[in-house]
Amino acid sequence: MSKPEKRSCIDLIKPYVPGKPVEEVERELGLKNVIKLASNENPLGPSPLALQALQELLPRLHYYPDGNCFYLKQSLAEKLALQPQQLVFGNGSDEILSLITRTYINPGDESLAVSPTFSEYEFAMRMMGGIPRAIPLRGKYFEFNLDELAAAVNERTRLIFICSPNNPTGSAVDKERLDRFLQQLPAGVLVVLDQAYYEYADCYGSDAGLEYVRAGLPVIVLRTFSKIYGLAGLRIGYGAAPAEVIADLNRVREPFNVNSAAQAAAQAALEDEEHVRQSRALAAEGQAQLREGLMKLGLEPVPSQANFCFVDVKVDSRKVFQKLLQRGVIVRTGDIFGYPTYIRVTFGTAEQNRRFLEALEEVLKR
Length: 366
Ligand SMILES: Cc1ncc(COP(=O)(O)O)c(C=O)c1O
Known about the structure:
- The protein is built from 13 helices and twelve strands.
- It has 366 residues and is an alpha/beta fold.
- The protein has two domains: 8-45 and 274-365, Aspartate Aminotransferase, domain 1, CATH 3.90.1150; 48-271, Aspartate Aminotransferase, domain 2.
- It has a seven-stranded mixed sheet with strand order 2-8-7-6-5-3-4. A three-stranded antiparallel sheet has the order 9-12-11, with helices on one face. Strands 1-10 form a two-stranded parallel sheet.
- Helix 7 links the parallel strand 5 and strand 6.
- The longest helix is centred in the C-terminal third of the chain and has 24 residues, at 273-296.
- The termini are far apart.
- Residues 40, 92-94, 118, 163, 167, 194, 196, 224, 226, 232, 237 line the site of pyridoxal-5'-phosphate (PLP).
- Pyridoxal-5'-phosphate (PLP) is lined by residues 40, 92-94, 118, 163, 167, 194, 196, 224, 226, 232, 237.
């Protein structure tokens, strides 16, 4: 076989390691009632309003989706007090990350992020031959040090990824420090403020980050319907940024990148504030339950502003992962984030959390 040589930057890409699907574990290990606490999904499922909107959409599936997400964009713009031209939708916020690097990154351009953080920033940079650089979070609670991040900016820096609340640590940066950080940045740098989990955080008001967009600062806020809205399977997220940034991204966006089911469900989900409130409350209860249970096992999870926690289990997390898997519990290992003795666990229902704690106790005892 003779195929073309791949681009040299492709060799530097580490394939994404997703959370294992429930069906795969049930099939491979012959188990039933497997629980997945590995991808920070919403254990309550989607809003009933979203499910109803999907039902109503089904007879119209032979039409292409609205490439401009017109109605969803109108609803969201109104809700967020933004102009429709300050919004772009993607096939998950993952897609918006790659729209950003496809638009702004030439080979050799650099980005900054913290470490550990969400791996897709590095992926999106590498895809374009860009160079991702990272500054470690500090202390046992993985705190952000934005002064260090600002000091690391150089003339090749184009993008700064700030994931807050941060995946996998759950730590967050407050608005005051972010305000100061933005004032220090030179021209020509776009800040990507990834707020996939911001609805769970109690350190932000609902406006978090959007005031930068309204003020025309070079900031793009990324949010998703995959987490608190419980629509991860449909793939839809959005970016809010000054209209000039959105216009740039729209040049590289595929015409029908967001399917019609995702648009309909997301629009209905936005209306369901009660579902969001319940989901947030369940995560807070889950955090309290897991913290108490983990502390009893002599483990201290990092305090989290999200719907998951990062905890040092003090032994090889891949072994713990395998043994939890045999007991029907899927979590995420910390080695993929550079922390081989940590695991990341999504807050589930009370029953799921109980099963996880029971399984972990057994695994660590052996
Ligand atoms: C921090 C962060 N950003 C973005 C995403 C991607 O979300 P989406 O499902 O919208 O692509 C995730 C998913 O896990 C995430 O953890």
